[in-house]
Structure formats: structure tokens, C-alpha cells
Design a protein that fits this description.
By secondary structure, the chain is of the alpha/beta class. The chain has 3 domains: 118 residues, Rossmann fold (3-Layer(aba) Sandwich); 228 residues, pyruvate-formate lyase- activating enzyme (Alpha-Beta Horseshoe), CATH 3.80.30.20; 52 residues, Nucleic acid-binding proteins (OB fold (Dihydrolipoamide Acetyltransferase, E2P), Beta Barrel). Helix content is 36%, strand content 22%.
Length: 424
């Protein structure tokens, strides 16, 4: 059997696709790069935002109508969030929920027999330690936990991913050791909230990081998104972990709004002061830290003052990376009973914030011109050159390099999203 696989969304979802691919190949099935030549088309969906939702619907309808000779399997978050839409747009399709990957063989075998199989709900299977087919052989995605402890009013992803389930640290450590021995030079820790790791088992992210950094080999660790409220009492230990030379000095800490009242409506569980204090402590201990944060523009209770508060906080904090989303109602989210604000107003606010984002990122990158940076090459550029990351996880493009090598480069130019360098 030949199968075709498309993946959308976060790093964790990419890890799920790697598990799907490896599991099916182990059973003797072949991954093909062509939907037209496949027996089964697998679409691993994302459903976090309304534009993504529409993209999924359009893509499923296209695949369903364009390749009638192939059976369609929908995986990922859409399955548990919006099954009614799936029934409407692709009634013959089979489904497998984000927390049902242990059933992938059963689902595929049933499909090959002509059955329509639908597996939904939350199993407690552990994804750690499962074989993964790495689509970049240098980068290993390490799923450390699934689900979260949050109750954010705008979020529908938690209905698909469920409550927090942290994976055993010894299994994770064994997975890292095998990945490094297999030639990986970057380990990407991922979860819906990496800082929540261990809250359900008595472990902690800082302890896990300490163990991983002791694995022999020359590699780097990228820590994924951390909820400000989850850092809590582990903050000082986390900062110490981030100081290790193997850990990228990259902090992804979503703010979502610069107004405390809006954060309360969102049920974020943290304040502006808590966010700023966390950033301050990390930056004091790690001066070369790069900061990524997220903002939702146009939450239903966001008035002009609240938005200006967001502008003020972002201006003060000066993040290196800013992810901006326009608010839209999501299926099952508790904020969806509120009235959305005017979309033209929302667009004006988003444009204003995007202009600030570009200006701040460019200013931060300009400071690196003429400095010498040590970078790790992990990709070839689609338009030429080679792509590396410095220890702050900033993208640096160089004209000549080899995959997997560490290089010292002099920064010669800067854009808002990346830098140019020359190998020394």
C-alpha cells in the first residue's frame, strides 16, 4: 500500500506525522510524494485559527474530489474539535484523533478492507519512544507531554489534546540518546505547554533539561512554548538550565494581551507584571536571550485602551519574534458566546501591531551586524545559501556551508526576519 501524507500546524503535530509515517513504513507500506499515486491520503490537520480551519476544509474537499481512487484519512485536531464539519464535507473519509495514534495500524487495515473507521477521544498512550520518520535527518522532535492544564476561553485545541500527560523522563532521555547517536544535531522539545511538564508526575522541565544536556554529543536543544503561569516556582531552575551551552537562548512566552482585564477574561492565569518579571529575570541571567511572544488582536472585550496597553507592553519588552493572530470564534470555546468586535477595527489594530513588530525585530537584528556568531547549519535555503541558527535561535543565511556543521560567521546584514553572514 502506498500512502501520501500532508501535515499542518505546530511542531507537535509534525511529530505526530513522523510517528504515523514510521509506523506505517514498519508495516511494509510505502510513503509516496504524490497523492495521485497513493492508495490512502492522510491529512494531519490543524484547527487552531479560523483561517486554518478554512484552509483545512478547502484542502479536504479538494483531495476528496481530485483523487477519487484514493481513500482519505483525516488525522489531527480537527477530528475531535469539529466532527460535524467533517461529516458534511467528506462523508466517506475515515478519522483518527490526535490522541489515538496507537490505532493507526487498525484504522489503515480497516480502510484497505473497504471500511470507514473513526477513532476519536483521548487515550493515555505514550508517544515518547515511538519510532519517528524524520523529514529533516538532523532535527529530532521530542514530544515531552500532551495536553495542558489551562482553561483559556478562546482555545479549541485543548478539546483535541485533552488534559496534561507528561511522558516518563527515562523514556525521553533514551529517545534523545538514540537521536544523537543517529546523527541529530538539534533536539526540539515540544508540548502544548513545555513549562507544564511534570506537573502531573512530580517531575519538572528544568530537571528534564538537565538530564538531556548531559547526553554526550555536540547538539543543541530548542525549548518550545511555555505558558507564563506554568513557570511558577521552577523559574530559577529553568533559567539555570537555559544557561547551559547546549540550550538555545530562546524563550517562547505567549502574552496574548497587554491588558490585565482582558487576560482575566481570557482566563490566562497570569498578569502583565508576572510576564514582564519573568522576561526581566531571564534577560538578566542570559543577556543574549531572544524572546518570542504571541498576541491575539481583537478579543471581544478588547477596547481601544486595552489595545493601546498591548502596544505599550510590546514596545517596552521589545520581542525578537512576535506572532499576531486576529481573534475569531472557535468551536466550543467559551468566548464564542461573546460578540466579536468590528473586523475593520481588528484589521487596523493588527496592521499597527505588525508595523511595530517589524520595526522592533529589525532594530534587534541590526545590533548584531559586525558581530561574530557561532551557528549550526540545519537546512539548505530554498532560494540559495544555507540556513543556520545562532545560540539565540536567530536565522542566519550564509553562502556556503555543509549540513550539520557549526561555523563562526561575521554578520554582514540584517532583515527583520533573518540575518546574513560570512564564514570566518
Amino acid at each position: 500500500m502506498k500512502f501520501y501524507l500532508e501535515t499542518y500546524g505546530c511542531t507537535f503535530n509534525q511529530g505526530d506525522s513522523q510517528i504515523i509515517a514510521a509506523t506505517l513504513e514498519k508495516d511494509g507500506h510505502e510513503l509516496t510524494q504524490s497523492a495521485a499515486h497513493s492508495d490512502i491520503i492522510i491529512l494531519n490537520s490543524c484547527y487552531v485559527k479560523l483561517p486554518t480551519q478554512q484552509k483545512m476544509i478547502n484542502r479536504i474537499q479538494y483531495l476528496n474530489s481530485s483523487y477519487p481512487q484514493s481513500k482519505l484519512l483525516i488525522a489531527g485536531c480537527m477530528v475531535d474539535i469539529d466532527p460535524q464539519v467533517l461529516k458534511r464535507i467528506a462523508p466517506p473519509a475515515s478519522w483518527i484523533g490526535a490522541r489515538q495514534l496507537s490505532s493507526i495500524q487498525e484504522v489503515v487495515e480497516g480502510m484497505l478492507k473497504g471500511e470507514t473507521i473513526r477513532k476519536t477521544g483521548h487515550s493515555h498512550d505514550i508517544k515518547a519512544g515511538l519510532p519517528k520518520k524524520r523529514f529533516n535527518p538532523l532535527i529530532h522532535i521530542l514530544q515531552i507531554a500532551e495536553g495542558c492544564q489551562g482553561s483559556c476561553t478562546y482555545c479549541c485545541t485543548r478539546f483535541a489534546r485533552g488534559k496534561l500527560q507528561s511522558y516518563p523522563d527515562d523514556v525521553l532521555l533514551d529517545e534523545v540518546e538514540k537521536a544523537v547517536r543517529g546523527g541529530c544535531v538539534e533536539i526540539q522539545l515540544t508540548a502544548q505547554d513545555t513549562a507544564a511538564y511534570g506537573e502531573d508526575t512530580g517531575n519538572s522541565l528544568s530537571s528534564l533539561l538537565k538530564d538531556i544536556t548531559q547526553v554526550e554529543g555536540d547538539f543543541r536543544i530548542r525549548v518550545g512554548m511555555m505558558h507564563p503561569k506554568s513557570i511558577g516556582g521552577d523559574q530559577e531552575s529553568l533559567i539555570k538550565s537555559f544557561q547551559n551551552e547546549k540550550v538555545y537562548k530562546f524563550l517562547h512566552l505567549p502574552l496574548q494581551s497587554g491588558n490585565d482585564q482582558v487576560l482575566t477574561y481570557m482566563k490566562r492565569g497570569h498578569s502583565i507584571d508576572k510576564f514582564k518579571e519573568t522576561v526581566r529575570r531571564f534577560r538578566e541571567a542570559i543577556p543574549r536571550l531572544s524572546l518570542a511572544t504571541d498576541i491575539i488582536v481583537g478579543y471581544p472585550t478588547e477596547d481601544d485602551k486595552a489595545f493601546q496597553d498591548t502596544i505599550k507592553v510590546i514596545s517596552e519588552v521589545g520581542p525578537d519574534f512576535l506572532h499576531i493572530s486576529k481573534y475569531h470564534h472557535r468551536p466550543g470555546a467559551t468566548s464564542s458566546h461573546l460578540k466579536e468586535i468590528s473586523h475593520p477595527v481588528m484589521s487596523v489594530r493588527a496592521r499597527q501591531l505588525n508595523e511595530l513588530k517589524t520595526r522592533l525585530a529589525y532594530q534587534n537584528n541590526q545590533k548584531l551586524i559586525h558581530t561574530v556568531q557561532n551557528i549550526l547549519i540545519t537546512d539548505k535555503g530554498s532560494r540559495g545559501g544555507w540556513i543556520g541558527r545562532n545560540d539565540s535561535y536567530k536565522t542566519i543565511i550564509v553562502p556556503e556551508a555543509s549540513l550539520g556543521e557549526f561555523l563562526n560567521v561575521k554578520i554582514t546584514g540584517a532583515k527583520s526576519t533573518y540575518l546574513y553572514g560570512e564564514v570566518i
